[in-house]
Design a protein that fits this description.
The structure is a homodimer. Chain A has a single domain, classed as Winged helix-like DNA-binding domain superfamily/Winged helix DNA-binding domain (Arc Repressor Mutant, subunit A), CATH 1.10.10.10. Chain A is built from seven helices and two strands, in the order H-H-H-H-E-E-H-H-H. Chain A is mainly alpha-helical and about 160 residues long. Helices cover about 65% and strands about 10% of the residues of chain A. Chain A is globular. The two termini of chain A are about 35 Å apart. Chain A has a two-stranded antiparallel sheet. Chains A and B meet through helix 1, helix 2, helix 5, helix 6 and helix 7 of A and helix 1, helix 2, helix 5, helix 6 and helix 7 of B. The first copy, chain A, binds a DNA duplex (30 and 30 nucleotides) through helix 4, strand 2 and helix 7.
DNA sequence: CATGATCGACAACCAGGTTTACTATATGGG
DNA sequence: CCCATATAGTAAACCTGGTTGTCGATCATG
C-alpha cells in the first residue's frame, strides 16, 4: 500500500484551510467598514465576549500573560473596539467590555463566519462538512481559544 | 434545520488540529534530540529542501522579505542546522544548505509526521482521513508553504 | 563599457510576547 | 483591629521576527 501524501502535508492543509477562512472573513470585514481588525483580534473578541472581562482573566483565557493581554486591550481601546471601566466592587479591577462598535463588528464577523461555513457546506456537501468537523473534534479535542500563536509559532513552546 | 455550530468554530477547529499535529511532532523531535527547533522551522526546512537555496529564493517561497529570510538563515546557522557556501557561478549568491544535522532532523520530522498521520488514520479510519484531506484540498487550494504567519496573524495582511 | 538589475547585509523601526518589579487594593488569620 | 499575603493593573527592559530603506558588490545587457 502506497503512502498517498507525505505526512507533513496534513498540517499544512489544515493551516491553509484555517487561513483561507480567516482571510475570507477579514475581506468581508474590510468591505463592511472594519479594515483595521487583524486576524488575532477575532480571538480576543471571542474571549472578551458580550459580558466583558478583566485583563488577568483575558490573559488566562487566551493563554498569554496578563501584561500581553493588557497591551492588546490598550490597542483595541485605541481603535475604539473596547472600553475600560472601574469595577465598583473591587477598586483593583477594571472591567473590559466591547463598545457598540466592537459588538457590531462581532456581529458582522459572526455573520461572515456563518456565511463561509455555509459556502463550504455547499461546496463539499453539508454532510461531509459535518463529518469533517466531527473528525476534527475527535482528533483535536480541548481548548479552542488560545492566543499565544506568535509566541507558540516562533518561540520554544 | 438548525445550525449545529456557530461559524467561528470551524476555523478554530482547523487551527486546533494543526496545532495538535505540530505539538505532537515537536514533542517527538525533542525526544529524539532536537529540543531547539521551533514550529516555524519546519516550514523553513521544507522550503530549503535537500537541494539548498538562497536567501532571496527562500524569502519568495515563504512569502517574507529576503531580509527576514536572511535573519532566519542566520539563526538556523547558529543552531547548526544550516550552512552557507559561496556560489562558484555567481559571487553575489550564497547557497544555503541543510547540514547533516539538519538533514537528519528533517528525516526525523518526516517520520514523525508520517506517524501522526498514521495514528489519525487509525483513530478515525483511513478512508475518513483521506476524505478529510480531499475536502481540505478542495476548500483551500493553493500554496501550502507560507511563513509569514506572525505578521499575517497580528499584522494588517 | 556603462547602466540597470540582483544578491546579501546592515540599520532603524514596529508588533507582540516574556520576565521582573512596583503600586494599589482586598482578604483573612492572629 | 492590624498586619501579612495575595491579587489587579501597569511599566520597563528585553527577545524574536517581521518590515522598509539603504548600500556595496556583482552580474547581465544594450
Amino acid at each position: 500500500m502506497v503512502e498517498p501524501t507525505p505526512g507533513y502535508e496534513l498540517p499544512l492543509q489544515l493551516f491553509a484551510a484555517f487561513r483561507a477562512i480567516i482571510d475570507a472573513a477579514h475581506d468581508d470585514l474590510a468591505r463592511h467598514g472594519y479594515p483595521d481588525v487583524k486576524p488575532m483580534h477575532g480571538f480576543v473578541f471571542q474571549a472578551i465576549g458580550t459580558q466583558g472581562t478583566t485583563a488577568v482573566e483575558l490573559g488566562a483565557r487566551l493563554g498569554v500573560s496578563k501584561q500581553a493581554a493588557g497591551k492588546t486591550i490598550a490597542n483595541l481601546e485605541k481603535l475604539g473596539y473596547v472600553e475600560r471601566a472601574a469595577d465598583p466592587n473591587d477598586a483593583r479591577r477594571k472591567l473590559v467590555r466591547l463598545t457598540a462598535h466592537g459588538l457590531d463588528m462581532l456581529a458582522v464577523s459572526a455573520r461572515s463566519f456563518d456565511a463561509i461555513q455555509a459556502q463550504w457546506a455547499e461546496t463539499i456537501g453539508p454532510e461531509r462538512l459535518a463529518a469533517l468537523q466531527n473528525d476534527l473534534r475527535t482528533l483535536a479535542p480541548g481548548e479552542l481559544l488560545r492566543l499565544d500563536v506568535p509566541g507558540w509559532f516562533s518561540g520554544d513552546r
